[in-house]
Design a protein that fits this description.
single chain, alpha/beta, Serine Threonine Protein Phosphatase 5, Tetratricopeptide repeat, 6-stranded mixed β-sheet, 16 strands, 7% strand, disordered N terminus, EC 3.4.22.49
Length: 971
């Protein structure tokens, strides 16, 4: 990012920028720079950081070339602010400080105040509260000086002096010259519908008050006052002063100037009230555990408010935890002691949550049309948290329950809106005039119609279930994952056709030990470990060390094997710590309703047997007990058969605490110390064993299942497909539910089949093999089988032109690329996005599927380009891989998919895998055998899942390839 510095910008300033320094361009330059700044603002609203950066850099170069310090400072400050928000904190702060230095000797204006607010926001987020308050104080004093009467009077005095000079100059005449005719321009103004403007003398003698003179600036200054108040509220919240922050909320409406201000103020007010509600939970003996508890929506099937609360008030003194569970890694954190309490939720607690919900709900619709995608994401995050907590306590507070479809809509709309806005930007760019008709007026009617259809009509709450969920094929399971703004919890939504969504809130640190010295494993720790692994893997994959030295090759393999083991451990920790017993949400198994009902009865009997609350109720209270939602029961049976060498003790304990929490929140009190979890686990294990044995006895031919992951913008970097619980499943990923809808509606089924699958013709394809000429081994493996494909166009050992790449993608059903990277060096990303049609793409180069994260902006990279082009499915790698292993994987996938004949390329030996179990040749041969025995049609995502085992390094290389899109079959 070094090119963002002023010095670098000066060096890169072109001759065309320097030409603008002439006197003739003095009035034009400010308009150009401000226009570029406004363009960057427009693209920032759509979350498109590359465009934001580009236009600001252009404005910075122009301002630097002409020596306009004030304009340069404004643009540099904006660039630094956006860079901070995109994640480049150090470089961004440096730019903002440089912008401050540029105007150090100039009078402070509102742009200087904005600059200080940029710094204040950064310092507050970094926990540097003193520096943040100082910057807010400077911004506030700057604005107060600008609106002070003395400053306004000085402006009026300057204008009066300028007016007098203008009058005197207009009175000057040349000797012997004829009186000049009045300028026609002023006479022509009478045809305007607006009132005729006064002359200079008339304006000077008018009765307008002095305070009206700077009216143009009043709007901006008052708006900045609102920004300062919001900055002060945020600072108070960061230091824990919720009461002080709440008191400042009363000042916010005094400085509201437009709809955007209303949205931002409502968002901040909602955060304050939500935090106040959570603080009230701390003193509650039951709901104090909500911040660290897993919550589901829905959780119960029915709720009877006529519970015998009086019987639940008495409980035994706390007892020690069961010995077996205390030994578990997650035991300490889950050893929570809940005291019984009265049934009803305190009014203040519910009041704060409802007020927070109302604040944000009232502005949600306007936010989706007028606010940036970052703000919409933030609103969705806050609203999702509020609704999840309300869903947990609503029954206890006798309030209406939260519909799961409403909650799912608010969680998904941010991702859908960001993709839609970028698609609209691409459509608008396609409508812009080209070189030959530059002076034609743009025809934007079609674009406006498309905008209304995509932004408003297609993301409506009333039709969300029908248009986005019920159209999902019956054999598909959609799992949407959303990371919270604080990165401390994941919201997982399971979507199936014909059913309301099932949503889980999983606090990532809920299993941490109460021992403060024990290391935690949250999102930041997991991502840091992954980034370190990828960095080391990329270095080792391209290391130029001399492998001819004795032992060098063995050392290289050992380093790679160590990284492979670390990645396996990371994925295991992600599954065990982040998901725990809730990993069953990824289960693809279709449940048998009759057998599930039997298991439900078994679970109820087990709970009746062991829970103190059920024992106190006796037979007379059986009808009033809480009935769990069937999706909660599916979490139990989705863990699998305990007989399959599957240790379910810890996952079952995780689910049992979840169930006990549900009962607690709905009035059925049980002190954790009184519950014999060991005995419950034993009984449930037997019930699960009987369930799965019955399923196996009644099992018929089961259709192929697929899982589609809808990933949050901060979760694309993880190889979720290789989690132990789903590593053998057919899994693909997409950036939004809208992308899934588009692919379902645009699918082209096989004309000879009515199974509803998406097909690609094996006889209509193109390939680019070894375009750089240095991948001789790859060319040797794939040249012959590619040339044998009927009806294919193959480009071998030469660089394709962009026109050829466009033809390969637009005119074919399948496109294979075997080269370096994603092929982006041969076709621009803009060109890909504008394609009218895009083939199924297999890009088998290093990091071809990696996305660049941009903080609060949207991630960008090759997968997003292909998704915007309408690509049904794209296979690519998340990080760099070694040639031979990825070649082996690619050949295996193409063979299992059905494109290549049943032949596997020879496997090279590895010093690491000799004698190892399930590694190397033996495991690869087993995978090869499975592929040869498979006679039925296999989807691309299923072929990828099977092909991972062909890699020598199952995780370091095998986990890198992922599929963006939906299942595609060959015909």
């Amino acid at each position: 990012m070094s090119e963002l510095s002023i010095a670098a910008s000066t060096e890169n300033t072109s001759t065309s920028h320097s030409m603008l320094s002439g006197v003739a361009f003095w009035t034009l330059v400010p308009r150009i720079v401000r226009g570029l700044n406004h363009l960057s603002l427009l693209f920032s609203y759509s979350g498109l950081y590359p465009e934001v950066r580009y236009y600001l850099q252009q404005g910075q170069k122009i301002a630097t070339a002409v020596g306009a310090a004030s304009l340069n400072s404004q643009t540099t400050a904006l660039l630094g602010n956006y860079l901070i928000r995109s994640g480049g904190v150090d470089e961004g702060v440096l730019l903002v400080q440089q912008a401050e230095n540029l105007v150090s000797g100039l009078p402070r204006d509102r742009h200087y105040a904005s600059l200080q607010l940029f710094l204040a926001s950064h310092h507050t987020k970094q926990g540097e509260l003193r520096a943040g308050k100082s910057a807010i104080g400077v911004a506030e004093s700057t604005i107060e000086n600008l609106v002070a009467k003395s400053f306004v009077d000085s402006l009026i005095q300057r204008r009066s002096t300028a007016t007098t000079l203008e009058i005197d100059m207009s009175a000057l005449t040349l000797q012997g010259a004829k009186p000049a005719r009045p300028p026609q321009r002023r006479q022509q103004q009478s045809i305007s519908k607006r009132p005729q403007s006064k002359s200079v003398a008339q304006r000077d003698s008018s009765n307008s008050s002095p305070e009206e003179a700077p009216a143009v600036e009043v709007f901006a200054l008052h708006r900045m006052r609102g920004e300062i108040i919001r900055a002060r509220i945020y600072a108070k919240m960061s230091e824990g002063g919720l009461e002080a922050a709440a008191s400042l909320l009363n000042e916010r409406n005094a400085h509201t100037r437009d709809q955007q201000d209303l949205v931002l103020q409502a968002l901040l007010a909602s955060r304050v009230h939500f935090r106040q509600g959570l603080e009230h939970f701390v003193s509650d003996p039951v709901f104090c555990v909500i911040p660290e508890s897993t919550i589901s929506c829905p959780a119960i099937k029915s709720c009877n408010s006529d519970r015998q609360d009086k019987q639940n008030k008495s409980s035994s003194p706390p007892k020690s935890r069961s010995a077996a569970f205390s030994k578990c890694a997650t035991g300490k954190a889950l050893a929570r002691k809940i005291k019984p309490r009265s049934l009803s939720l305190a009014k203040d607690e519910a009041k704060f949550l409802r007020v927070a919900q109302d604040e944000i709900s009232n502005v949600f619709r306007s936010a989706t049309t007028s606010s940036s995608t970052a703000i919409v994401h933030e609103i969705s995050d806050v609203l999702g948290k509020i609704l999840m907590v309300l869903s947990a306590v609503s029954s206890a507070s006798s309030r209406a329950s939260i519909p799961p479809g409403v909650l799912s809509y608010f969680l998904e709309v941010g991702r859908m809106l960001s993709m839609t806005r970028e698609s609209l930007a691409i459509q608008v760019e396609c409508k812009l005039p080209n070189g030959k008709d530059t002076f034609d007026w743009p025809n934007d009617n079609a674009v406006e119609g498309q905008e209304r259809a995509q932004v408003h009509d297609k993301i409506e709450l009333s039709t969300f279930q029908a248009e986005y969920i019920d159209i999902i094929p019956q054999d598909w399971r959609v799992v949407s994952m959303t990371l919270s703004q604080e990165r401390d919890e994941i919201l997982v939504s399971k979507l199936r056709s014909g059913q309301t969504p099932f949503i889980l809130r999983l606090p990532l640190n809920r299993h941490n030990s109460l021992d403060q010295d024990e290391e935690t494993f949250g999102y930041d720790q997991g991502k840091a470990e992954l980034q370190d692994l990828i960095s080391l893997a990329n270095i080792s994959a391209h290391s130029a060390q001399d492998l001819s030295r004795k032992g060098a090759k063995t050392e290289w393999w050992e380093r790679r094997a160590t990284l492979d083991a670390r990645l396996k451990d990371l994925l295991t920790n992600m599954e065990t710590i982040w998901f725990g017993g809730f990993k069953a949400v990824f289960s693809q198994t279709a449940q048998n309703p009759a057998l599930l009902s039997r298991f439900q009865q078994s679970l109820q009997n087990i709970l009746d047997k062991h829970l103190p609350s059920r024992q106190r109720l006796g037979r007379g209270g059986q009808s009033n007990r809480v009935a769990l939602d069937l999706r909660v029961l599916e979490l139990f049976v989705g863990l699998g058969n305990p007989s399959d060498s599957n240790d379910l003790d810890e996952p079952l304990v995780d689910l049992l605490y979840f169930v006990v929490d549900i009962l607690q929140f709905n009035g059925e009190r049980n002190a954790y110390d009184e519950v014999d979890f060991d005995s419950i686990v034993i009984d449930i294990t037997d019930a699960l064993r009987h369930y799965h044995q019955a399923v196996e006895n009644e099992q018929g031919s089961e259709s192929e299942k697929h899982t589609i992951l809808i990933l949050d913008k901060h979760l694309h970097c993880f190889p979720w497909e290789s989690l132990p619980c789903i590593k053998d499943h057919a899994v693909s990923r997409l950036p939004s539910l809208g992308c899934l809808r588009n692919r379902i509606l645009q699918q082209k089924p096989n004309p000879t089949s009515s199974d509803g699958r998406i097909y690609a013709s094996r006889k209509n394809g193109a390939s680019v093999l070894n375009p750089g000429g240095d991948l001789t081994s790859t060319q040797g493996k794939f040249e012959e089988p590619l040339q044998e494909l009927s009806g294919w166009e193959c480009i071998v050992q030469r660089e394709p032109t962009e026109a050829e790449m466009v033809t390969c993608l637009e005119s074919n059903d399948i496109f294979l690329y075997f080269g370096h990277g994603s092929g982006g060096q041969y076709i621009r990303s803009r060109t890909i996005k504008k394609l009218g049609k895009c083939a199924v793409a297999l890009l088998m180069g290093c990091s071809s599927g990696a996305l660049t994260e941009a903080g609060e902006f949207e991630p960008y990279g090759t997968p997003m380009n292909y998704m915007h082009a309408g690509c049904p499915a794209m296979l690519a790698t998340l990080w760099d891989v070694t040639d031979k292993d990825i070649d082996r994987f690619s050949h295996s996938v193409l063979e299992k998919w059905g494109l290549f004949e049943g032949r596997q390329p020879p496997l090279s030996s590895s010093p690491v895998k000799k004698g190892a179990k399930q590694k190397g040749k033996g495991r690869a041969k087993n995978a090869e055998k499975v592929g040869r025995d498979e006679s039925k049609a296999v989807s691309l995502d299923q072929a990828v899942a099977q092909g991972r085992d062909s890699c020598i390094l199952r995780y370091l290389n095998g986990a890198a390839p992922v599929v963006y899109g939906v299942p595609v079959y060959l015909c």
